[in-house]
Amino acid sequence: MKSKPKQSEVMEEETGKTEGYSERNEKEEVFTKIVRAGKRTYFFDVKSTRHEDLYLTITESKKRQGKEGKMFYEKHKIFLYKEDFEKFTEGLREAVLQPVSSQTSILMIWVQTKE
Fold first, then answer.
1. CA–CA separation, 56 and 78 (whole Å)
2. Of 32, 59, 38, whose CA–CA distance to 113 is shortest?
3. Which of 43, 50, 59, 73 would bridge with 7, disulfide CB 3.0–4.6 Å?
4. How many CB atoms lie within 10 A of CB 7?
5. What whole-number distance in Å separates Cα of residue 88 and Cα of residue 65?
6. Beta sheet of 71-81, edge-to-edge order
7. In angstroms, what CA-CA distances link 95 with 38, 73, 91, 107, 115?
8. Model-level pTM greater than 0.90?
9. Which CATH number fits the domain 7-82, given the four candidates 3.60.110.10, 3.10.450.700, 3.40.50.300, 3.90.10.10?
10. Among the residues of 2-105, which ranges form H helices?
11. What pLDDT shows up at residue 111?
12. Within 13 A of 46's CA, how many CA atoms are on the CB side?
């Protein structure tokens, strides 16, 4: 059975190198979910600190073309610590369920596009 690739392997595939990656990082990774969405790739990584506290990193990676025509990956990252999980989840849920009109929420729009 083929295992899911780690973020570092996908990032290596995207960038051709594992910039800043070390064995120490591999030991810290608890869980990784990779979501490819059009021109963007999202990485949801649960990691552990030296003191075994969990945190989540959400990384958006988007392919871009530089001035000389060379392709590169632009990355944006959010670090979410365990003490903020509940409030972040509540805020995300509220944002997704917030009506964008009197009858429709973002979640309803998303469900309709999947049908």
1. 8
2. 38
3. 43
4. 22
5. 33
6. 29-37, 40-48, 54-65, 71-81
7. 22, 28, 6, 9, 22
8. no
9. 3.10.450.700
10. 7-15, 23-28, 85-97
11. 63
12. 8
Q: Per-residue pLDDT for the chain (115 aa), expressed as one digit of tens each?
A: 445 555 555 554 543 444 454 545 545 889 999 999 988 999 999 999 888 899 999 999 998 888 899 989 999 999 999 899 999 999 988 887 877 766 676 666 666 666 5
Look-up of token digits 């899911």: 4
Report d(CA 61, CA 58) in Å as an integer.
10
CB-CB contact of 65 with 71 (8 Å): yes
**Cα angle vertex 94, ends 93, 98, to 5°?**
120
The residue written with tokens 């309709």 in the block is 112
Sequence-distant (≥ 6) Cβ neighbours of residue 75 within 8 angstroms: 59, 60, 61, 62
Q: Within 13 A of 13's CA, how many CA atoms are on the CB side?
A: 8
